[in-house]
Amino acid sequence: MRQDIPRSDGARPDGTPPGLARQRKATPQRNDTRLDVMTPDNPTQDKASDKDERFIFQASAETHAIIKLLSNAEIGAKITYEQIIRATGEDPAKGIVAVRGFLYTAQRHLQREKNFVFGTIQGIGVQRLADPEIIDATKAKIVHVRRGARRAAGKLACADFTNLSKDQKSDALTLQSQLGACQLALSLRAAHAIEQKLEQGQKLKIGNVVDFFKAG
């Protein structure tokens, strides 16, 4: 019978360092790594992972279908929600809710890549906006943001500073300043001041906008 002779350095006869064999034995092999789950031919992939892969592919396909549909829209063209839903292969009976996220993604893509901007026609669909309409839509968004900042400032004012830690007080004061600056920058007074400077042919610099808002 063959008998292994211990080595003087403590290593196993096959050259394995001492303790490594115990470490290998104690460390279980993991079959649930992300790489394993994402491998198409992995025999251990479960049904839940299958569902996730199908959803990712489906989402990409639906977004692509909406991009293709909207990219052909001329200025002023109206695309109904039913057209959008049918383009994705979904049942129109489910309503726009079923594909709304894909629609938003497609709109962002077309705005970034082709400068296409779409407005919403309540309950009907979307419409590609002309340049003057883009300006009007942006004005409406400014009003929305200004009102949101005012409401947020009102909520913040309800906080009792005596119940706040030093860091929380600092956060609250920072938020107050940011919301105040936001309301000031988006106010009608600020808009009027900017218009006056532009009419005078002055170039606007971000660094001193607050100063000329006050001066206006």
What can you tell me about this protein's structure?
The structure is a single chain. With 216 residues, the chain is mainly alpha-helical. It has three domains: 57-128, Arc Repressor Mutant, subunit A, CATH 1.10.10; 131-185; 192-216, no CATH class. It is 57% helix and 5% strand. The chain is built from nine helices and three strands; from the N terminus they run αααβααββαααα. It has a three-stranded antiparallel beta sheet with strand order 1-3-2. α3 crosses α4 and α3 crosses α5 (100-114).
Task: Describe the secondary structure blueprint for this structure.
Elements: H1 20-26, H2 34-38, H3 47-70, E1 78-80, H4 81-88, H5 100-114, E2 118-121, E3 125-128, H6 131-156, H7 166-185, H8 188-199, H9 209-215
Antiparallel strand pairs: 1-3, 2-3
Q: What order do the helices and strands follow?
A: HHHEHHEEHHHH
Q: What is the overall number of helices?
A: 9
Overall geometry comes to flat
**What average pLDDT do the residues reach?**
77
* Overall strand count: 3
Number of domains: 3
In short:
With 216 residues, this protein is mainly alpha-helical. 57% of the residues lie in helices and 5% in strands.
Keywords:
single chain; 216 residues; mainly alpha; Arc Repressor Mutant, subunit A; 3 domains; three-stranded antiparallel sheet; 57% helix; flat
